[in-house]
Structure to design on (278 residues):
């Protein structure tokens, strides 16, 4: 496994292998779990060379404490990547990617970025898109792999690719879950086993929507909100029923696989998100 700390080293390597190899790319902020590793394994199955980046991106945090407290476990992450034979890891410092004082670019993703995460985490998507564009311009991967758990992010990355004229194919990989259905997340490490079990309410709520889809959007939403109200450890930030294409809130179902149900909630102060496509 090759490890590069600067974009110049990485660019030199890529230029030496690009002509005869396809490149798959997975961007991460480290603190790797099985969900991340699954993305990399998928890349290895379809691409000749797989690159994983580990970089805690400062411009996508709207809270300095969140940025400071974000888990940084580089040595453990590298061990995990070696075990699954990741080809290349890019581990830059901030100054390798950002000029001094550089801020996030201002993008216009329209309705994709206005609701849910865009509403509750202002500036997050501009920061995320800024770093993804930088990575894509450096690596120019044939394919980039993203998990469905961050569905709104996934849709915005697809829009970004069109905006910047990139030829990279964005590959969506279904959410990897823990035994009780809780979506794999770096934040799960902050939960006790008891809280993890309780947090499965998020997954159960999404499954309820699948089974009871005929009840309609309004009824499903009200019933789920009532369930969260019964759990004192939980604070429901949002549950939104949206059109997959534009992330706009819906009151009636669109066609099959054109709807998404997205939930964000705090359990004992830990923020979790999840979704399903219907």
């Amino acid at each position: 496994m090759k490890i590069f700390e600067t974009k110049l080293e990485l660019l030199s390597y890529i230029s030496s292998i690009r002509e005869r190899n396809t490149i798959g790319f997975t961007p991460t902020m480290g603190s790797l779990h099985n969900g991340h590793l699954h993305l990399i394994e998928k890349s290895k199955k379809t691409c000749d060379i797989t690159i994983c980046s580990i970089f805690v991106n400062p411009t996508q945090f709207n809270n300095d404490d969140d940025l400071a407290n974000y888990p940084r476990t580089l040595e453990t992450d590298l061990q995990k990547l070696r075990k699954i034979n990741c080809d290349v890891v890019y581990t830059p410092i901030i100054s390798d990617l950002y000029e001094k004082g550089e801020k996030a670019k201002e993008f216009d993703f329209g309705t994709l970025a206005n609701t849910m995460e865009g509403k509750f985490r202002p500036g997050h998507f501009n920061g995320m898109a800024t770093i993804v564009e930088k990575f894509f311009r450096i690596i120019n991967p044939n394919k980039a792999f993203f998990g469905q758990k961050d569905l709104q992010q996934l849709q915005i990355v697809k829009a970004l690719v069109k905006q910047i004229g990139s030829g990279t194919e964005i590959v969506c990989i279904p959410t990897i879950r823990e035994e009780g259905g809780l979506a794999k997340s770096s934040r799960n490490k902050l939960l006790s086993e008891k809280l993890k079990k309780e947090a499965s309410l998020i997954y159960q709520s999404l499954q309820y929507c699948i089974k009871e889809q005929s009840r309609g959007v309004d009824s499903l939403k009200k019933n789920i909100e009532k369930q969260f109200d019964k759990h004192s450890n939980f604070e429901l930030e949002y549950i939104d029923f949206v059109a997959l294409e534009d992330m706009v809130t819906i009151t009636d179902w669109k066609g099959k696989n054109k709807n998404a149900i997205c939930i964000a909630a705090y359990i004992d102060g830990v923020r979790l998100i999840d979704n399903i496509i219907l």
Summary: The beta strands are 2-4, 23-28, 49-54, 88-90, 143-147, 169-173, 234-243, 259-267, 270-277. The mean pLDDT is 96. The radius of gyration is 19 Å. The chain is about 40% helix and 20% strand.
